Structures are given as C-alpha cells and as structure tokens.
C-alpha cells in the first residue's frame, strides 16, 4: 500500500545532514552496514546459484499431477503393480506411405526397428510384440486339434511366396486392428517398458528413451536422405515412425520444458525493454532486472536444496517471481527517482523509499502469498508444490527486492536525466498534458454520468459473461494427450493410430480384486462380463476388454472353434485352462496370482460428460456387486485417472474461489477498515473472474488442474492494484479531499505503477502462450487476461464504484 | 479449517463403511435366475442362431438376448427372457410355438411367436433327470450293464452342476422335439416340453461325442457332431443309428430337402448326399475356415457361411461346385435363415446382417 509519509521526509542533499540513527531497527541494521549486507547477499546468491546449477533436475511426474487421496486414485495406486496391461508401454507404428506392409523393403525396415527396440535399454523384451516377434502366433483348429506357428514365417526370405504366407498368417492370427492396421498400410510394435532397468537398477530415464526413439528410429528411417528432423514436422520419405505411450509423452513434455525455459529469456528481455522505456535509465533498469533475477536464483536454489524438481507446473514459478519482483523493484526505483529528482542524496532517497514502501511491499507480497497459499488446499501434489515453491519465491522477494534493491540503489542511484524526466512527467500530469490526459479521462469515472455508464457496462459484461460461463466444462476437451497441443506430433500420431487401429487411447478400467486365484472364479468372470456389458451400453464406450474376452475365445477354441461355445463355462478345469492359455497370449489381463483383473472400457473421448457417465455406471455396479471377497474398484487407465481428477477439480474449483475471495475480502477489510472499500476493491475482481470463465468457454478450455492456480493467482495478485489505488485514495479522502480530487491524486501517485505492474506481470506470463505444453499455454493466456483485465477493472471500476459507495468514506 | 476438513473426511469414511456394509449384503444372482437386460446394443452383439416363426424372424444370442423382427430383419424388438445365459439355438415348429436352448442346460419356451419366454428346464435339473431315468431302467432291468453307466453319467452331471450347454434344438410339431448338446447330451419331449426324457442311450455314441446339430430333411431326422458323428433317426428302432460318415472331422450343421442332404463342418468341409447319407460326395469349398451356418435362398439354392464370413453357394440338386460369392462386407456368421421376403438374414459375433434379395 502506498502509505503516504512524504510529509515527514524533507529533502536532504548531503549524507552528513542525515541522521543514520533514524528509521526502524530493520532499516538501521541494513542501511548502516551496507557492505556487510551486500556481501552476505552475494555469498547467498553464489551458494544458492551453485545449488540450482548442480541439483536442479527436470522430473515431470504424472503421479504428482493426480489427486493422491481421491479414493479412485488410491485404489489405482494400491493396485498399480498388478495392472500390467495399463502399465508402461510405448506403441511404435511403422507406416509405409507408398504401399502396404506386404512389401519386402517395408518388412526389412520393420525388422531393423524391431531389433533396435529390442536392444534399447529399459525395454521388457520378453513381452515385446511385433510382426517379427516369434511370440506373435497364429492358431487354427484342425481335425487333429490346434495347429499354429509364428505369424512371420520361420523361413522368411522376402520371396512372393513368403509374403503370401505372411498375409495368410496375419488373417489367421486375427491381429488386424491390433498389430496390423485395418488398411494394411502400417503395423505396430508394442514395447512394454521395465519399471527399473535390469542392468543398472535405475528407473528409466524417459527423456533419454524418447531421444533414442527420435534419433535411432525417426532420424534413421523417417528422415532419410535430404530431409532432417525439425521440431514437430513429419518426414517426407517412404517410411513414417509414429510413437505414442507414456514414456514418449514424458519425453516430449521434457522437450517442451526445455523450450519453455528459453521463454524465460524472452520474458526477461521484454521486462528489460518495458522498464527501460518507462525509466529511460539503463543502470537502474539493469538493477531492477538483476535483483529480480537474483530472486529467481534464490528461489531455484532453495527449491532444489529442498529436493523439489522442475515439472511443467513449477517451471512457471520463476516467471511469476521474476514478474512480481520486477514490478516491486520498479516501484522502489520510481520512489527513489522522485526523491533524487527533488534533490535528495541517493542514500537518503533509498532509505526514504525503504521507509515509504517496505510495509506496502510486504503487504502486497502477502496478498500474493494468500493467492499461492490457497493452492495448498488442493489435493494435487504438483499444485501444492507450486504453492510451496511460489511461497518460497515470494519470501525471497522480501530480501532481494524490498531490501537489496534499495541498498543497491543507494550505491548506484539513478541517472540525473531520468530523474528529471520523472519530474517533468509528473508536472505534465498536473498540467493535464501527456499522461495527465489519461488520468483526467480516468478521473471522469468519479462523476455520476460516467460512473453509472461504467457500472452498467460492467454489469452487462458480468451478466453476459456469467451466461456464457454456465457452459464451462470440467476437464480436458480435446482428443489425444491433453498435456500436449492438439496439432503436436504426438497427438497427430495418436490420431493416426486411433484412426487405423481398433482401440482408442482413452481407457477407463475398473479393477476387480479378489483373493488369490479369484479371477478364475466363475462368478467373478460372469460379473466382469456383466460389468463390461453395462459399460458398453454407454454410446461413447467403443468396446470393453477383460479376461472374459480371452476366456470366451479360448473356450470356443477348445471346442473346435464352435461359436456357440464362445462362452464362460462353469467347469473350473475349463476356466483354469483358459486362464493358463491367456497368461501366455494376453498376460496383461490379470496379475500373477490372479487376484486382480481389470475390466477396460475404451472410450471415444475423454470429455467430462463421458467420464461422469461411465463413472456413474461403474460406481453403481460396484456398489451393487462388491462383496467381502470380491471388490469392484474404480478406477485405473488414463480415462479413469482423468475422471478422478475431474471430480477433485470440480470440487476444488468451487472451494478455491470461496477461499481465495474470503481471504482477499478479509485482507481488504483489514487494510481499508471499511466494508464499502472492500466491496469497491473486490467487485472488479469478481467481474474478471466471471469474464475469465467466459473466455475459457470461448477458447474451449475446461476447468482442469492447470486452471486452478490461474484463478487463485489472478485474484491474489489482482487485488494488488486495488490495494495501491484505494489506500491512497482513502488516505486523501480521510484527509478531507472530495472523491474526485482524492482519486486524481491516487492515480497521479500510483496510476503509473499500477500500469507498470499490470504490464510487467502480463509480459512475464504471456510467453507461456507459445509453450508446446498445452496447459501452460492455457495458463499463460488466462493469466495474462486476468492481469490486464484486473488492471483495467481497477483503474475504471474503482472510481466508478467509489462514486456510489465511497463518496464519504468517514461515514462507512 | 483443518479440523472441519478432518471431520468431513471422517463423515465420508463412515458413509463409505456404511455403503460397503450395504454392498456386502449384495448377493450374486446366477445367470439362470437373472432376466436378460433389455439393450439397444443387442442387435449388434453376438447372436448365435436365427429362425422363422411364421412370417416373423427370431434370433437368439449371448446374455439371454432374444430378438424378433416382423419386417424381414430391418428392425428388431427384444423379447422378455427370464434368464441371461448365452442362448445357442432356436426353433419354431409352428408360427406361435417355439423353443430356445443354450448354455447351462437352459430350455426356454414361447407360445406367442417369440415375444415372451418361460423357462422349461435348466442344467440344475438335468442331472437329476438323467439319474432318475436310468436308475429306474437299471432297477427294471438289472441284467443290462448299460443302465448303471448312464445312471453314473447322471450322477456326474449332478456333481458338475449346470455346466452343460445345449447346442441345438428341433421340434417336429408343438409337442415332439429334441434338444442336443455337448458330451452326448440329448433330451426329448412328447408334451411340448412339460417333461423331458434323456435319450443318451439311443444315439449310438459311447464315446460321448458332442452333438452339434439336429436337423430334418423331409421325414428324415439327423444328428451331426464331433469327429464325423452322423446319426439318423430310425423310427422302427426308436433310436438314432449310425450313418456312414465321409469325414472324421467335426460337423457343425446339416441342411437339406427331401432327397438331398448337406453336411458341413471344420476347415471348409462340405459333403452332399442324395441317398439319405448312404453315399457322399465332397463339395470343394476352396476354404480352410470352418463352415458354421447354412440357409436356402429365394431361388432354392443353398448358401453356406463360414466363421470368417465367407458366403458359398451350392445349386439345389447340387452339382459338385461350390461358388464363393463376393460380399460388400464380411463378418463371422453363426446362424442364417431366409426371411419372408426372400432376403437372407445372418447372425454372428457382430449381430444381425441382412442380405437383400438379389
């Protein structure tokens, strides 16, 4: 808050005229020992910088993106080890763009790809499947019983006869749609990954694995000849390599993170330009940017010391901290500049500014911290870590920006020209020239006509926005991996694979948990079959897969393939035989001791309505059929996890708004000691929140994990503006000035700062909009919108609302 | 705030425990006692047989689905069925009276052209039935060593539970009919299914081979089954007697007309006989896939269908050639029949498929 104490701060031209014993304890201990303080700061910066450089690692963890204590997620986490089919595997599709798979050249490439993957560290070789795997077999019922062999003829040598045999075997094996595309233009390699590398005992490095896929497969086979892999582009050659799967997704996310880190440079550069434009003083601009960067170094150092890693959410914290740092540091500079311009010595000016703005700065940072702190209430580890790391950053800002910045300025000062310029701008403002015209325009909003107009427009916007926001959806709305953009290579590959193979990548799994051998129980299988059937009734469920499918098929097989025996038989021997066969052909359908089997529904999309409906069906079935020795547990699979996340997000979105607004209102009541002022401060934020939701509807962004922090930060940081403006306005009003004059003074005093804060904050986050990671882009756009709109709301609606509510603040 | 959250969590836990307690009360309902669930998907889901009830089509399939159509297969209604066991075969000797059989030894009856069904028998009663029948015969004729063996078979059925599927059903009229199934399971009725009599001793099948199909051509009634099993009903002896089989693999079905009989089965095998099975001629299908269904088309030709969905034509009065017919799409066929308008209606793992009259 811009607490106005200028009256007690006379202009002092020489340090010798200044009594160093004045000021509070903190000021004296810092400013009277400046060299020691600077040395300490430098040492800490070195230490934390070293920490950041040596310890910081990128570790996007999906586990942390899911709500850990949601019951469905707990069910999943408890049983994850048993869910092989839903486990970690990548699907590599090798496509022949100039023909079909019955092409010796294609098959040779496929063989090389197969061998390359087979030898890649981390691949669970035993379960790898492709046309070249001996384990991929065909079987046929003959008069003598079963007959079968590997799909790829043992003696394959590329002759037309071999190819014909392969064609026959593919049909006999029934792998069209699973390993072979339905148009025969591509085939798939299913590559399961080990949790830990058998050689090193370490977890798989997904980034490295993803690089191997790019360099050893794509560069080798897709980008042949002249073409070179660049970004997301596809090769133009005969062969295309398409890869989907968790490991690839993580790899792409890390690539995205690296790209986003580069955006930081752009954010720094744009902040630099903005401040330089504002101050026209190079040295103080460098100082502002330097101090803010120092805050980022500290934050990263502390965070990595505490063992946190960078993930797609926490990578955004440095941007925010930098932006907040820049906006606070510029205010310090603004203050010092005005004092120096009036002739005060730079050390004294620095101490004055400290006195004037330290409490105000801490208050503003506290209100930011409230925004972050509220995020702790969301039961999703990435968001909680975001809250912790951002709170650390805010705490760091107290040292770097509120203390270090004025100390550094006391050494460096500002250029005389810049100080002069600041004076001229202020003079222009009072003479209604330059920026003064803008302030005059804003000033008019305190008059009845303009205030009424502004409030009516705001009301119309609010109502319109609210109507639109009613269509706000929960969850991710686009197809493919929601973390990446719809047109990313990964999602294009995903769309290709969904289009040419039978199964979608949106899997919703219900886990059936029994005692050992329980999944072979006739009743369990019948219930699994009933559950699958219930799920299939929903039109968005494409198909279901469970052990029952295998059991039915194997039973029919043991009756010479008679379709009438495609059934679940009560005979335990028959069920045991079926399971034994299934454990060879489809081991992913149940765990080793047969105590857990998933029923997997493949969904046409992962829209919230679909997930809700499927959850409702599964949940009702689970409640109706669970018993002591057989539980139906929701939920696993990508769609299952998303469904659980949606449930938490929907709840969190409401509570978050409640908490953050409660906090902000309490904050305003303390700061202004007037409920009317609190209303004036909060209503513009409410309008922004409503419009933000409308914007989400317009842009097709659903409420998801990534939008929760946006809402909290938008409100938590957005209140800053009102704090600056209103506190000054109230100060003048309480001194007896009429509203118009008080507001005019407030705007003249802090309007420039409000504008600067809004622009620097927006500049800090807008670069995210170009992030290859979809939710970061969404966050960037929404946060920028909130920062800018909050600023406009404050400048326009505060005077307008004040006209109605705060004409006589002493009455309040 | 924290304590409130904990309290809420506690309350949630308590609710969950309560729900769990309720859930534990839920008891498993057997497929023989659980009525089939009406579903719009039934027409696209696995169906195993289709037949005519007068003008109407009736199809049966997995999960107790029975569907009927009055517009030659264009639209279907789902019948009320008291069981959700998989149903394998259906036959209507009259336009009103029909029987459907399936897994778990279930026999269903309809007297309203397939709109509603009642259960006449299920696997839980068959063992008792067999044991009683042959025990009575054994005590009536102590010298015959066969009866105790058949009685023991009944005892085994009781022990193994309701796990024997019927694979086919055929009724001569509204009173007399047969249901056949795996391991030489065969029951006959003379009172429209009020009571059933085991016929295991009348099939000349000591190995207990599966009886896959029962069909009539004119006055002759045949059984076809596993490992080349072919039997013909001998009214004089009142038993099914062996017919010379040209093939040692399994037959999945029979079709014919007076004076003509086709038997089809594993790996594309089709045999044709003009003398009620005394001599056979193989028809070359050129396929290695099992032939699983057959019907007569509007011209009176035979159409044979495979497990992979191929369609073959054999001219009536068959000359030796089977002709593979092209189709727009192919999906596995488990049952076929001719609709009232001459169209062919096929059922299989993907539900109903209608081939219009050419």
TrEMBL record, chain A:
<dbReference type="Pfam" id="PF03176">
    <property type="entry name" value="MMPL"/>
</dbReference>
<feature type="transmembrane region" description="Helical">
    <location>
        <begin position="390"/>
        <end position="414"/>
    </location>
</feature>
<feature type="transmembrane region" description="Helical">
    <location>
        <begin position="256"/>
        <end position="278"/>
    </location>
</feature>
<feature type="transmembrane region" description="Helical">
    <location>
        <begin position="450"/>
        <end position="470"/>
    </location>
</feature>
<keyword id="KW-0472">Membrane</keyword>
<feature type="transmembrane region" description="Helical">
    <location>
        <begin position="357"/>
        <end position="378"/>
    </location>
</feature>
<keyword id="KW-0812">Transmembrane</keyword>
<feature type="transmembrane region" description="Helical">
    <location>
        <begin position="285"/>
        <end position="307"/>
    </location>
</feature>
<feature type="domain" description="SSD">
    <location>
        <begin position="293"/>
        <end position="411"/>
    </location>
</feature>
<dbReference type="InterPro" id="IPR004869">
    <property type="entry name" value="MMPL_dom"/>
</dbReference>
<feature type="transmembrane region" description="Helical">
    <location>
        <begin position="679"/>
        <end position="701"/>
    </location>
</feature>
<keyword id="KW-1003">Cell membrane</keyword>
<dbReference type="GO" id="GO:0005886">
    <property type="term" value="C:plasma membrane"/>
</dbReference>
<dbReference type="InterPro" id="IPR000731">
    <property type="entry name" value="SSD"/>
</dbReference>
<feature type="transmembrane region" description="Helical">
    <location>
        <begin position="313"/>
        <end position="330"/>
    </location>
</feature>
<feature type="transmembrane region" description="Helical">
    <location>
        <begin position="782"/>
        <end position="806"/>
    </location>
</feature>
<feature type="transmembrane region" description="Helical">
    <location>
        <begin position="36"/>
        <end position="53"/>
    </location>
</feature>
<protein>
    <recommendedName>
        <fullName>SSD domain-containing protein</fullName>
    </recommendedName>
</protein>
<feature type="transmembrane region" description="Helical">
    <location>
        <begin position="707"/>
        <end position="726"/>
    </location>
</feature>
<keyword id="KW-1133">Transmembrane helix</keyword>
<feature type="transmembrane region" description="Helical">
    <location>
        <begin position="747"/>
        <end position="770"/>
    </location>
</feature>
<dbReference type="InterPro" id="IPR050545">
    <property type="entry name" value="Mycobact_MmpL"/>
</dbReference>
UniProtKB/TrEMBL annotation, chain B:
<feature type="signal peptide">
    <location>
        <begin position="1"/>
        <end position="25"/>
    </location>
</feature>
<keyword id="KW-0604">Photosystem II</keyword>
<feature type="domain" description="Photosynthesis system II assembly factor Ycf48/Hcf136-like">
    <location>
        <begin position="45"/>
        <end position="119"/>
    </location>
</feature>
<dbReference type="InterPro" id="IPR036278">
    <property type="entry name" value="Sialidase_sf"/>
</dbReference>
<protein>
    <recommendedName>
        <fullName>Photosynthesis system II assembly factor Ycf48/Hcf136-like domain-containing protein</fullName>
    </recommendedName>
</protein>
<dbReference type="Pfam" id="PF14870">
    <property type="entry name" value="PSII_BNR"/>
</dbReference>
<dbReference type="GO" id="GO:0009523">
    <property type="term" value="C:photosystem II"/>
</dbReference>
<keyword id="KW-0732">Signal</keyword>
<dbReference type="InterPro" id="IPR028203">
    <property type="entry name" value="PSII_CF48-like_dom"/>
</dbReference>
<keyword id="KW-0602">Photosynthesis</keyword>
<feature type="domain" description="Photosynthesis system II assembly factor Ycf48/Hcf136-like">
    <location>
        <begin position="162"/>
        <end position="303"/>
    </location>
</feature>
<dbReference type="GO" id="GO:0015979">
    <property type="term" value="P:photosynthesis"/>
</dbReference>
<dbReference type="InterPro" id="IPR015943">
    <property type="entry name" value="WD40/YVTN_repeat-like_dom_sf"/>
</dbReference>
């Amino acid at each position: 808050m811009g607490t106005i104490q200028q009256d007690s701060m006379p202009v002092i031209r020489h340090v010798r005229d200044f009594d160093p014993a004045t000021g509070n304890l903190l000021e004296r201990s810092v400013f009277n020992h400046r060299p020691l303080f600077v040395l300490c700061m430098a040492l800490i910066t070195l230490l934390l910088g070293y920490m950041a450089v040596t310890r910081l690692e990128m570790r996007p963890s999906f586990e942390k993106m899911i709500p850990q204590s949601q019951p469905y997620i707990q069910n999943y986490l408890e049983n994850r080890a048993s869910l092989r089919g839903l486990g970690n595997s990548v699907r590599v599709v090798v496509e022949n763009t100039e023909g079909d798979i019955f092409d010796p050249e294609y098959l040779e490439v496929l063989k090389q790809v197969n061998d390359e993957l087979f030898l890649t560290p981390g691949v669970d070789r035993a379960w790898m499947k492709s046309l070249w795997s001996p384990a991929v077999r065909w079987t046929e019922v003959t008069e003598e019983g079963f007959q079968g062999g590997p799909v790829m003829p043992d003696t394959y040598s590329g002759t037309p006869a071999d190819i014909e045999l392969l064609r026959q075997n593919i049909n006999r094996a029934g792998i069209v749609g699973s390993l072979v595309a339905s148009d025969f233009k591509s085939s798939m390699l299913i590559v399961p990954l080990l949790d830990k590398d058998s050689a090193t005992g370490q977890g798989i490095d997904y980034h490295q694995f993803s690089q191997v896929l790019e360099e050893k497969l794509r560069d080798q086979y897709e980008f042949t000849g002249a073409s070179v892999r660049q970004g997301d582009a596809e090769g133009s050659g005969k062969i295309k390599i398409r890869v989907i799967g968790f490991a690839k997704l993580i790899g792409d996310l890390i690539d995205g993170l690296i790209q986003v880190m580069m955006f930081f440079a752009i954010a720094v550069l744009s902040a630099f330009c903005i401040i330089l434009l504002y101050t026209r003083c190079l040295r103080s601009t460098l100082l502002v940017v330097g101090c803010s960067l120092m805050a980022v170094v500290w934050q990263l150092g502390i965070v990595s010391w505490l063992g946190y890693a960078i993930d797609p959410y926490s990578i955004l914290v440095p941007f925010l901290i930098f932006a907040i740092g820049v906006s606070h540091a510029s205010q310090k500079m603004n203050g010092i500049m005005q004092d120096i311009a009036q002739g005060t010595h730079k050390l004294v000016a620095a101490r004055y500014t400290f006195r004037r703005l330290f409490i105000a700065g801490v208050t503003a940072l506290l209100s930011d911290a409230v925004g972050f702190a509220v995020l702790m209430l969301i039961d999703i580890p990435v968001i909680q870590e975001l809250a912790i790391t951002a709170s650390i950053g805010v705490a760091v800002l107290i040292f770097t920006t509120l203390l270090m910045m004025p100390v550094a300025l006391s050494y460096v000062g500002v250029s005389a020209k810049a100080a002069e310029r600041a004076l001229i701008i202020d003079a222009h403002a009072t003479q209604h020239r330059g920026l003064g015209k803008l302030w005059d325009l804003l000033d008019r909003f305190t008059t009845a006509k303009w205030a009424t107009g502004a409030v009516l427009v705001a009301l119309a916007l609010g109502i319109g926005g609210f109507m639109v926001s009613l269509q706000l959806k929960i969850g991710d709305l686009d197809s493919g991996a929601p973390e990446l953009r719809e047109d990313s290579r990964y999602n294009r590959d995903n769309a290709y694979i969904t289009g040419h193979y039978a199964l979608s990548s949106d899997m919703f799994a219900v886990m059936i948990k029994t005692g050992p051998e329980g999944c072979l129980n006739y009743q369990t299988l019948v219930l699994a079959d009933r559950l699958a059937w219930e799920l299939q009734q929903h039109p968005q469920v494409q198909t279901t897969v469970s052990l029952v499918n295998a059991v039915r098929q194997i039973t029919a097989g043991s009756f010479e393939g008679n379709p009438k025996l495609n059934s679940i038989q009560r005979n335990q021997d028959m069920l045991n035989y079926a399971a034994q066969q299934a454990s060879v052909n489809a081991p992913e359908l149940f765990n080793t001791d047969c105590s857990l089997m998933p029923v997997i529904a493949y969904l046409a999309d992962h829209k919230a309505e679909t997930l809700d409906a499927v959850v409702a069906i599964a949940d009702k079935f689970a409640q109706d059929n669970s018993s002591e020795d057989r539980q139906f547990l929701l939920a696993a699979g990508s769609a299952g996890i998303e469904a659980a996340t949606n449930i938490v997000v929907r709840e969190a979105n409401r509570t978050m708004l409640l908490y953050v607004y409660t906090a902000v209102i309490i904050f305003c009541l303390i700061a202004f000691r007037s409920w009317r002022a609190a209303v004036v401060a909060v209503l513009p934020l409410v309008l922004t929140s409503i419009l933000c939701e409308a914007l989400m509807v317009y842009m097709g962004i659903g409420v998801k994990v990534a939008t929760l922090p946006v809402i909290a930060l938008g409100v938590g940081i957005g209140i800053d503006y009102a704090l600056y403006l209103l506190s000054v306005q109230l100060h003048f009003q309480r001194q007896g000035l009429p509203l118009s004059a008080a507001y005019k003074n407030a705007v003249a005093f802090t309007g420039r700062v409000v504008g600067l804060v809004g622009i620097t904050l927006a500049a800090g986050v807008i670069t995210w909009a170009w992030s290859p990671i979809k939710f970061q882009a969404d966050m960037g756009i929404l946060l920028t919108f909130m920062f800018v709109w909050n600023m406009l709301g404050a400048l326009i609606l505060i005077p307008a609302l004040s006209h109605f509510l705060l004409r006589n603040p002493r009455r309040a | 705030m924290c304590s409130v959250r904990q309290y809420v969590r506690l309350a949630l836990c308590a609710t969950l425990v309560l729900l769990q307690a309720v859930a534990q009360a839920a008891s498993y309902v057997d497929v023989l006692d659980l009525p089939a669930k009406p579903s719009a998907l039934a027409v696209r889901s696995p169906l195993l047989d289709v037949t005519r009830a007068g003008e109407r089509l009736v199809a049966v399939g997995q999960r107790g689905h029975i569907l009927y159509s009055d517009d030659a297969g264009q639209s279907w209604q789902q019948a009320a069925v008291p069981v959700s066991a998989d149903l394998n075969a259906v036959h209507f000797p009259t336009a009103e009276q029909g029987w459907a059989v399936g897994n778990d030894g279930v026999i269903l009856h309809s007297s309203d052209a397939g709109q509603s069904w009642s259960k006449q028998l299920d696997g839980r009663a068959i063992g008792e039935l067999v044991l009683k029948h042959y025990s009575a015969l054994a005590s009536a004729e102590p010298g015959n060593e066969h009866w105790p063996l058949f009685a023991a078979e009944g005892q085994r059925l009781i022990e193994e539970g309701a796990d024997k599927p019927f694979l086919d059903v055929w009724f001569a009229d509204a009173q007399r009919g047969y249901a056949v199934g795996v391991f030489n399971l065969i029951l006959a009725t003379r009172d429209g299914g009020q009571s059933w009599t085991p016929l295991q001793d009348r099939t000349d099948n000591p190995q207990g081979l599966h009886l896959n199909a029962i069909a009539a051509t004119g006055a002759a009634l045949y059984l076809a089954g596993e490992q080349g099993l072919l039997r013909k009903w001998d009214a004089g002896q009142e038993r099914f007697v062996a017919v010379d089989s040209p093939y040692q693999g399994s037959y999945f079905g029979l079709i014919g007309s007076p004076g003509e009989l086709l038997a089809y089965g594993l790996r594309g095998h089709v045999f044709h006989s003009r003398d009620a099975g005394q001599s056979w001629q193989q028809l070359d299908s050129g396929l290695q896939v099992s032939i699983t269904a057959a019907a007569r088309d509007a011209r009176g030709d035979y159409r044979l269908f495979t497990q992979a969905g191929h369609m073959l034509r054999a001219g009536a009065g068959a000359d030796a050639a089977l002709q593979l017919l092209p189709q727009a799409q192919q999906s596995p066929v488990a049952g076929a029949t001719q609709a009232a308008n001459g169209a062919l209606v096929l059922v299989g793992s993907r539900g109903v498929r209608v081939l219009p009259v050419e």
